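Repro:
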Amino acid sequence: MRVRKRLRHGLSLGGAYTYSKSIDNASSIGGGASVVAQNDQDLAAERGLSSFDQRHRLTTDYYYDLPLGKDRKWLHDGSWPAKVFGGFALSGNVSAASGFPFTPRIFGNIADINRGITGAHRPDVVPGQSIQGSDSTILHWFNTAAFTNPAGAFGDAGRNIIIGPHTVNVDMALNKTIQVKETQSLELRFSATNVFNHARFTAIDTTLGSPTFGQIISAGSMRKAQIVARYRF
């Protein structure tokens, strides 16, 4: 679903919301990564959420010509305050999205290496245990007690059954245009990504037996800012 308010009185707004669900049995075939089934005699057990599945995604954008300066509502008289405070425009976007799914795994088992499935072996799910915790934290994102070493050769845990952390991002830019001559202008732009420096967690440790099992182990880039000057002629 997409909505758009066209530019009027210096303001334009837009937004898009996507609800989706993707299911497969090998998300990265042909994508440059190796995909190995836990049990090549039971490919149905590989059916699960795609690695790129993201249930909800909301993005919004905005652009606002501040009403100060030439041809605008206030300070349009050509005075020095008009030259200093006029010609500014504020723009940016805000996005929020559900987390990506992750697969519980067991690494380092000699029998797995002999079978050629190292990295694809999965644990068993403990009956009656909920996987997603209601009070997820950085040090305990999901219920680690929900998984145990498999009773047989292969675990019964499915692919991508652990939902990772959601993301929120805010980018913003402030522009000022200075008219030098009729056909020449100087544009100054200050922009920042992740302007509020909000932590965006990107990965969790889903390896049973790991010292950091169940913890957030990586984050995306933090705030970055830059200043750009452009002369148009």
